[in-house]
Structures are given as C-alpha cells and as structure tokens.
Amino acid sequence: GKPMHEWLRFAVCFWHTFRGLGADMFGSPTLDRPWDHQSDPMTIAKDRLRAAFEFFTKLGVKYFTFHDRDIAPEGETIEETEKNLDEIVQLAKQLQKETGIKCLWGTANLFSHPRYMNGAATNPDAHVFAYAAAQVKKAMEVTHELGGENYVFWGGREGYISLLNTDVRKELDHLAAFFRMAIEHKKKIGFKGQLLIEPKPKEPTKHQYDYDAQTVMGFLSYYGLDKDFKLNIEPNHTTMAGHAYEHDVEMCSRYGMLGSIDSNTGDSSLGWDTDQFPMNLRDCAFLMRTIITQGGLAPGGLNFDCKVRRESTNLQDMFIAHIGAMDCFALALRKMARLFEDKKYDALVKQRYASYDDTDMGKKIANGKATFEELHAFAKKNGEPAKTSGEQEKYEAIFNRYLD
Ligand code: 3MF
Ligand code: MG
Ligand code: MG
To answer: pLDDT tens, 85-110?
Structure first.
C-alpha cells in the first residue's frame, strides 16, 4: 500500500557525517574536511551547515538529525551559547526553505562537556542538573523551530562508575523529574513532536541507567511516563547489552513503544559501539520485518547514526556509505514485503499458537479467566502434551528463502 519512501524515512546525522574526523581512542583525526578550513568557529559552523544541506540534497535524503553542539559552538556563558545557536538556526531555517529538507529530530549533547563528567540529570550536584535542564529547554525550542518531528534523549553520562558512591534510587528519581519537566515544557511551547529515549548499556559510563529497551520501558511505566515517551533503538547498542541485533527493536515494538531507529550495524563480537553503516541484508530484513508488522515508523525514521571509517579520506566515501545502506534497506523492504504478501510465514507462526486461539481452555487462559485448579484438572485429564519438532530450524530455513 504505502510508497517505498514512507517505509524508509531515512535521515543523515550531523555529528558523524559533518563533525566526525576519524579520531578514535588510539588515533588522532585522519579526515580533512573542507568546511572546517576557516578559523572563526561561527564561520566554520555556517560553512559546515551549508555543506551539510548540499550533501542532503545531492543524496536525496529528506531528513537530518542533530545535537545542539554539533551545529553551533558553545560560548562562555549560556547567553552566548544561545545566541550562537539562534544565529545558526536562522541559517538552517533558510536552507530548509530552499531545499525542502526536514528535521527528523534534535537533541542536546549532555555528554561531551567536562561539567557532565558525573552525569547530567543524574548528577549529584543540583547546579549541574539545572545546567542540563537549561540546555535541554533550549534544544527543545530549537528543534521545535526547525520543525523537528521528534526529540531524543540519550543519557550517555546517566549512570554510575561505582555503586559505593552512588545513590541509584535518588538518581533515577531525579531522571524521572527531569523527564517530567521536559513533558511540561513540550506542552508549554506547543511542540507536537514525539519524545524518545535511546537506550545504551555502557560507553562512556560503566553502567548506564537506560540499559536496554526493557529496562527503559520498566523505568517509564514505574514513573508513569510511558504515555509520553517512545524509544529510539540503535541495534549496535542492543548487541552491546548482550542481545541479538534485532532484539530491542522487536521488544519495544510489541509493546507499542518503538518510535525510531538509529540504524547502524554493530559487531556483536566487539564490546563497543562501532557505528558502521548497515550493509547486511539479514540485519536490515529483521528490522524491516518489525517495521512492517507495526505499520511503519512515522513520525520516527531510519537515522544513520553511522560513521565512515578513519581511512575514508575521500569525500565520495560519505556518499557511497549512505547510498549502500539505503540500498540495503530498500532491498530488505522488497524481500520482507514478499514475506508478508505470501502470508505463508504468518500462517506458520499463527499455527504455533493455535492452542491459545482455537481451543476453549487456551482462550480461557489468554483472557485471564482460568484458575490453577482448573488447569490442574485439565492437565490430569488430558495427560502428556503432544511433542513438537523441527521448530526453530523450520522457521529460519523458510525465512532464509525470502532473502534469496
Ligand atoms: C551514542 C549515540 C548517540 C545518540 C545521540 C542522539 C552520539 O552511542 O548513539 O550519538 O544517538 O546522542 O540521541
Ligand atoms: Mg545513536
Ligand atoms: Mg551509538
């Protein structure tokens, strides 16, 4: 039914694509970017923004995502920082008007500056909490001004290094209070976008509170925030939590909580976030399968939170990387569309649960109407359940045929 571009709401991220210079833990930058050649930080920021919009246009991608600090330099004071941001936002609005490029989401960088070394909203110092709130307030307003369709929270420093100096309950209460204020502020400024939390188990913090999808969903329901937030899942973060690539995407989708995807590929054999462009058909197919099942991602999208490798010194590599990843998703969408059209696979899964859907006792259990006494009597009367066979292999083998 839906045209392809509505299933594949691609976005380019500002931070890797225009701020990434190939540095890593052991190596200094390797990439020379022409938009960084000026000396004045505001001139650089403007050149970079113009280059970014040229890139989005040439690539034909409709959306971009950004952190406040990616697009404008931080000043000496909050006033100066906000003035810088406002100036850049005016230019961004003009470029948006000229090109028709839209903002998928904005966010605040609450992890780079030294003031956040012990957390932002979970910092033991209320002064830091206030500073983080001031920053998010402005970032939400700026996202609203750019017509952002979502706003993301990634708590990179919201966690602990040692339990011996940490009151985890206090910090999580503070985090919930922070989110409540964000909801209030969203209403106050009339921002209609979706609020998203992005889980990640570790890096840079030893243990991050937003560990994985189920941890975040548990936190949101406990604090009564689950109606106001959805999740932005990054599959590379999922593998860091010890899960399969597609685990978190499926987990929150099935609870109506999948809002958007930071689509990259991790390497489950590595313990850290490699942010590689997704070029693996099987991985993309699993994501598309979930996205099709829930009827699409809008207002979220497929944001490429990915970086070209440090040896990608040629600017062309930025194009090749994004185009390769988009092709992979488009191919995955086609393959999975066939899987859904055939209905054979669906019918097989349905058959697996038929005893719940089609028998009196099964329906009673599913409706919460059965008791242990009744089930005890049922089990005694009917004896040993029938054996099942070839379960997992059967489904995997059939699924693989659709990837042909
Ligand atoms: C870190 C991330 C982050 C988030 C970003 C937006 C720097 O591993 O994935 O990117 O995506 O902060 O929420
Ligand atoms: Mg991310
Ligand atoms: Mg990441």
So the answer is: 999 999 999 999 999 999 999 999 99
